[in-house]
Amino acid sequence: FLNSMLTNDLTKIPDGAAQYSMLCNDTGGVIDDLIVYRNSESDFFIVPNASNTSAVVADLQAHAPGGITVTNLHNEFGVIALQGPMAAKVLAHFGLQIEIDYMAFTYVSIAGCEVIVCRTGYTGEYGFEVLPKWSQALTVWDALVQQVEANEGLICGLGARDTLRTEMGYPLHGHELSLEISPIMASASWAVGWNKEAFQGSEALREQKETGVPRRLVALKSLDRGIPRPDMHVLFEGAEVGIVTSGTFSPSLKCGIALALVNSNFKVGQLLELDVRGRTSKVEIVKLPFMPSHVR
User: Fold this and answer.
1) CB neighbours (10 Å) of residue 50?
2) Contact partners, residue 29, CB within 8 Å, separation at least 6
3) Which domains are delineated in the chain?
């Protein structure tokens, strides 16, 4: 059932592994991007974006055949991202020598609480995501924070995560993905199982792959002091050719960076401009990621 709903091919992962995928509508728009975790051939759990949980559950429940149960556990779990080169050392304090591959998961105990530990994240760094039951989330959080601070780590919020995921070129629903922006437009066709049988939205996506799309996601690097921000217009010779979907100052590169949907004829190396509150700022189309990945 899930393989007929989601874009990626779930037959490619074994028990105890996870996979990045998307749930599309019939026109190829993205209801949400998500991580699917396989417990067994008949038992999967899905972590969507929190704000899209209801939409994902509703769509899966609407299409689930008899014998398939879709349960909304959104209010029963928390998610704590433990990211960076010291992540394994922090978990080791709890007696956990977690040697699992990237995109795999296991069940362990932290501070007396049973949790799911996944070798996943959305920062581009080596790390884990810890899923405690909501009733025990504060206990697990406090235990992890104590060890993070003991190892000179920092507590940060979604703003910092957003900067890191932008540096990696990871799409965020509502920005690079939406009901109007397909995986093809978002340059995320790698998350589509093209060789599997039909799935929700596959006909529209195959047509887009065959005929092309008017705009695609690209990476932009500022060539001056301008800082790209979402919804800024991308210009070429004064004409609007795209829109910024995510933009920020990169602490790693010490310059402005952006993800933008631009006309499909523009390529890496070409120079464009941004409309920054009435003045122009020069940018270059560059390859992603902006920073090397350290997830493995």
Assistant:
1) 9
2) 178, 179, 180, 181, 182, 201
3) 1-213 (3.30.1360.120), 214-290 (2.40.30.110)
Contact 182/208 with Cβ under 8 angstroms? yes
pTM: 0.94
Alpha-carbon gap, residue 237 to 289, rounded angstroms: 27
Q: Residue 123: name the closest of 97, 159, 93, 151 by CA.
A: 159
**Rg for the chain (alpha carbons), in Å?**
20
Whole-angstrom distance, CA of residue 256 vs CA of residue 220: 8
Q: Where do we find the tokens 């270059």? A: 284
Q: Which of 254, 260, 257 is nearest to 215 (CA)?
A: 260
Give the Cβ contact number of residue 193 at 10 Å. Answer: 18
Q: What are phi and psi of 101, to 5 degrees?
A: -70, 160
Find out whether 81 and 161 touch, Cβ atoms under 8 Å. Answer: yes
**Residue 98: is its pLDDT beyond 80?**
no
pLDDT in tens, 246-255: 999 999 999 9
Entry field: residues in the chain:
296
Find the largest Cα–Cα distance for the chain.
62
